[in-house]
Amino acid sequence: MNEEPQREDDEPIASSDSSPFVPREGDIIDGKYLVGTLLGEGGMGVVLSGEHTQLRQPIAIKVLAPKYAADRQFRARFLREARAAASLSSDHAVRIIDVGTTAEKLPFMVMERLDGESLEARLERGPLSVPTTLDIVAQALSAVTDAHARGLVHRDLKPGNLFLTPKDDGTLRVKVLDFGISKSMLEVDASASDASLTAPRALLGSPLYMSPEQLRDASGVDARTDVWAMGVVIFELLSGRAPFETSSIPELYAKILNEPTPSLRALVPNVSVELEAVVTRCLEKDRSRRFTDAADLARAIERVRTADRGAVAATVAVGSSPAPPVSRRMPLVALAAAGL
Whole-number mean pLDDT of the chain? Predict the structure, then answer.
């Protein structure tokens, strides 16, 4: 009997007595990628520093975690991430340079190396100012808008997947990471591997940032689930906490599904009514009441930024009137910058 030809993502895995291992520092992958130190570990992969030996270009290498190497679903998901990220043109999506398989049959992808820190790490030092939050969100939405325009839903937007890297002028550039569980809204892949990734009731994503419909049935999500996640991110950046928090997963699900969104202005009084309205709309339980996609949300964020800049300008103009010479108050713009 003739066997079906094997697909590239179904390559045989080493036997249990010779299980795959993560490349070590000093190893060469695919004849041209020199492996460096460990940069981090995520839910399904390990990220290593590296260098393109011929171009002398610093890179990052993401390798599928060995414990998932024999799982066809995870291998397909890993490949999906590479394809999804590589399809994006936004400067705020991490750039994919190459993909392949190590000698140990572990899938890997080569990415641009980013210096800086995740937004999750930044949040450990406390909440951010309104101007900084809006700038970060606007940049992240640039990449998500690109994804949505191409029919892709990220499905795992959270501070850990938003990376802050310094630009030459000292300002921060935001990069959106990890499209590993992204889903196409435009076409359905009939292959067994991809179909199983979006099977009904499969819970994909991080619970604190998951929309109600994502909790109910992950196969039915669309761009509005990313809008929900961005609403949670904005709430957390400004207040230092997620809108729905509890000590157990079942209670968290119950809150997301049933409880009204807490008042952001009650926690952060300097948040404008307009900005709170944007966040509240992102976090509508009924997704038909949310912004339709990232582009729709980005326009709303820009309206808030414009209004806030106008308010600051008006305040500064009023403050420019003759004042007592003893006044040494810091300008409002400087105070806003100090909130980072």
Answer: 81
- Dihedral angle computed from the Cα positions of residues 270, 275, 279 and 280, in that order, rounded to the nearest 10 degrees: 90
Reported in sequence order, the residue ranges of the chain that DSSP labels E, i.e. its strands, are 28-29, 33-41, 45-52, 57-64, 96-101, 107-112, 117-118, 152-153, 162-166, 172-176, 183-184
| Per-residue pLDDT tens over the stretch 169-213 | 888 999 998 875 656 554 433 333 333 344 333 445 689 999 999
Whole-number Å distance between alpha carbons of 195 and 12? 21
Distance CA 245, CA 254 (A): 11
**Which three-class secondary structure state does DSSP give residue 157?**
coil
pLDDT tens for 306-337 read: 987 766 555 444 454 444 433 323 332 222 23
Determine what percent of the chain is predicted with pLDDT higher than 70: 77
Does residue 112 contact residue 93 with C-beta atoms inside 8 Å? Answer: no
Tell me if residue 156 is catalytic.
Answer: yes
Instruction: Indicate whether this model's pTM tops 0.90.
Output: no
Can you give the pLDDT at residue 222? 93
CB 80 within 8 A of CB 97: no
pLDDT tens for each residue of 7-34: 444 444 343 334 567 899 999 999 999 9
d(CA 69, CA 213): 30
Token code pair at residue 76? 């397909």
- Residue 310: closest CA among 282, 279, 340, 274: 274
* CB 92 within 8 Å of CB 179: no
Does residue 199 come out as left (phi exceeding 0), alpha (psi in the -120 to 50 range) or beta? Answer: beta
Which structure tokens are listed for 227? 């809008």
**Alpha carbon distance 153, 144 (integer Å):** 8
Q: How far is CA 269 from the centre of its chain?
A: 27
Q: With the CA atoms of 133, 299, 257 and 43 taken in that order, what torsion angle do they form, in degrees rounded to the nearest 10? A: -60
pLDDT at residue 299 is higher than 80 = yes
Q: Which of 27, 135, 146, 156 is catalytic?
A: 156
How big is the chain by its Cα radius of gyration, in Å? 22
Can you read off the two tokens belonging to residue 242?
Answer: 């997620």
**Cβ atoms of 225 and 155 closer than 8 Å:** yes
